[in-house]
Design goal:
alpha+beta, 21% strand
Amino acid sequence: KDYNLFATLLLDIYTAIKPKINILDAITGMEGNGPSSGEPRNFGFIAAGSDALSLDMIVSEFLEIPAEMVPYLKIAKQKGLKEVDSKEIIIEGINEIVIKGKLKYPPNYSTNFRLPKLVNNFVNSFFVSYPWVSSLCKGCGICKKHCPAGAIIIKGIAKIDKRKCIRCFCCQELCNYNAIKVKNRLF
């Protein structure tokens, strides 16, 4: 539920393991709600470097993605972690014509209020987005199989129990039929 905690965990793993080579495949990327409900986009490049944080910072900057939109880059900056010399990052196959133009970002569904449970549930009903099942659902069960919270049952089509849902959106990402959407709230 907590994107910042997850981003901190990723950063801790990275700083403990320190991989020697990091490869970023951006030949074809995904815009919007990925990986299966987004739109493919041809970026046409591969990037590599000895420092994963630097690699992600440089590519994010190159694609004009603000670090604040990438939780682990934002936390890295807050912790004072900096990129290494950008000369250590190699980017091959750049097609600037394809890259130009704003990226479509996924909707921001991260809202975590720290209020008493009853008040929190009421407030969240106005602010927090949840997955919902559209009429495109075929009842295949892939979402149920991969739901870490066990919040999905199949009765002809998928049904999501919002009380159990942790808003990981695995169901939406894995749906082969683009049947699970993100329900935006009033605010």
